[in-house]
Amino acid sequence: MKPLIEAITVSKHYEVQTGGFLRRQSLALRAVDGVDLAIMPGETLGLVGESGCGKSTLGRLLIRLIPTTSGNILFDNADITQLNQKEMRSVRRGMQIVFQDPYGALNPRMTVEDIIMEPLLIHGARADAAARKQVADLLGVVGLPARARERFPHEFSGGQRQRIGIARALVLKPRFVVCDEPVSALDVSVQAQIVNLLGDLQQEFGLTYLFIAHDLGVVKHISTRVAVMYLGKIVEIAEKRALYEAPLHPYTQALIAAVPASHPSQRSRGRRERQRIAGDIPSALHPPSGCRFHTRCPFVMPVCREQAPATTEPRPGHHVACHLNG
Amino acid sequence: MPLLDVQNLTTAFQTQRGEITAVEDISFSLEPGEILGIVGESGSGKSVTALTIMGLLPRPPARIAGGSIRFEGTELTTLSQSRMQGIRGPGIAMVFQEPMTSLNPVFSIGDQLMETIRAHERLPPKALFARAVEMLDRVGIPSASTRMKDYPHQLSGGQRQRVMLAMALVCRPRLLIADEPTTALDVTIQAQILDLILDLRDEFGMAVMIITHNMGVVAETADRVMVMYAGRVVEEAPVTTLFDRPLHPYTRGLLECVPSLTEEMDRLVAIPGTLPEPARRPQGCRFAPRCRYAEPACRAGLPPLESYDPGHSAACIRVPELTRP
Ligand SMILES: Nc1ncnc2c1ncn2[C@@H]1O[C@H](COP(=O)(O)OP(=O)(O)OP(=O)(O)O)[C@@H](O)[C@H]1O
Ligand SMILES: Nc1ncnc2c1ncn2[C@@H]1O[C@H](COP(=O)(O)OP(=O)(O)OP(=O)(O)O)[C@@H](O)[C@H]1O
Ligand code: SF4
Ligand code: SF4
Ligand SMILES: [Mg+2]
Ligand SMILES: [Mg+2]
User: Alpha-carbon distance B177 to B38, whole Å?
Assistant: First the structure.
């Protein structure tokens, strides 16, 4: 099977001004740095990592919401990094995004119907009976009442707003949807509703997802495979069971060890002592030399400070970038 | 005598559309050194409970419509502002949900820490500085003495939360109220902060009220748990009992809907619907519109909080039949 979407050594560098008035200098912030990734049709690739590691940037790059600094992105085997605006337009229909913030992502002055219909109009459809029928059908699909049509976003709860955002992303019948923390802002009870909905929609429409989230439990539930990101790089990627049951990268091990217990008898205070990682994620402006995780890694070796580890495949389908697995 | 004893507390707000009760008839107590977890969905009244205890809600629009709050035997609901000031800090300290709103951006963290100490203790400048550095060091800020000069914006989110903890702990409070102390943080940092709170509890013997919507945080830290729904307590139990034998359908729902790292399920068990706003609460049991066990009798009146085992109570009229083996 060929991947639906593929990233080949993709990078995104932002120019950032630093220093005071006199020592102002421009630095390249490597938000995404040489990432290789392939997502198969119909699968959900989970993407986890600490705040600022580049998850949203990578998601936006894959659907070309933002341009790459270097590298290529293939959608259905066609390179989309070089397309002009007009060519991009027809490809864009196939790739959509659902955002984290159900409050900020919807225009407060538009009715729900207009919000969901807007992408259709942008792609040349007319606001006719057929378009309205499509919106009405979608409202049903995402579990909103038909009368939601003429209401405004502020009249809905967070979970309902997220349903509106999902309907909007689906109206163009995309094949690939980037879900950028779609449930992070929701209460756990409502979070479960939306996770179930995303699963149902995937079955019904054969969708392929990149699912970005902080919550490792939710990611495990919804994903086929999971990728772990640290300071702009993918450090490990594997089928979900392999990743959670036998993580190879020390960072992945630390992330999993940090997840709070699901029962008081499994309190991790003692268990964590061994795998605890100290401190915060370093600044992406000044990433550590060699392996970027070396400043926090409990297994750091001299070579880690000098050389960036190459990505290896110690087991079929299980990729990791760490000198311990070289 | 318990350290904190809250009885039948009701807090209301005047709003443009009339008065709403954010917290209604809640009772609980805390022993020295004990950790009480308070869980519930957004809007269930967790922060209002905390802020009422701290005496930090402006009145009006807030009003304590009933009940009492006793801290070490002193009634707080009728205490003057100046005497309340003396309790905040060495008696009860709080870490707020939004770290940036409670750190002043124009003062260095060292100045803010020293100011907090100065408000309650007279210390020579050197000792004052040393005490602040010691506290920063204790909460895990690296090279604390040089970081004293830093401003809040120079810190990462995790470091800011640590500084907030340092500010709360610098007067060695007997009760720490931590309102979602880790919600905005990554799991790695969350684990560090929770360990820190537990360490400090062991070291200073302070009691902790930890407010969260994350059942994992409760499982990691609490001795006892209170579950809130739409302003009321729906269940209270020792932590292991709550996880093993939850009685209220809402508590069961909360425990079921979180995907676990160890078990796999085809679908998550979601609770349908959403929490009602205070002005639109249903008649009778407030959870009834979302409850899979609801029956007409549930809508007849508010289910009272009944005790089923020592220390284990729930507010659901169907507990006896639903828990029959
Ligand atoms: N437009 C921009 N200009 C400059 N820097 C940016 C820009 N967008 C993102 N960054 C930086 O790029 C890095 C990656 O950001 P990104 O938003 O992709 O992280 P993330 O993993 O999605 O984090 P979070 O979990 O907080 O959403 C961060 O250091 C961020 O500050
Ligand atoms: N100053 C206020 N005026 C009017 N209503 C208020 C005020 N503060 C809180 N409320 C209402 O009281 C209820 C309880 O709010 P509270 O902040 O205690 O919820 P919470 O459980 O802490 O939620 P979250 O998890 O979102 O922090 C909510 O319905 C809220 O809208
Ligand atoms: S390469 Fe070295 S520092 Fe990096 S994760 Fe592996 S052992 Fe740790
Ligand atoms: S009283 Fe009735 S509606 Fe309320 S929780 Fe119990 S069974 Fe459900
Ligand atoms: Mg992001
Ligand atoms: Mg709150």
Answer: 10
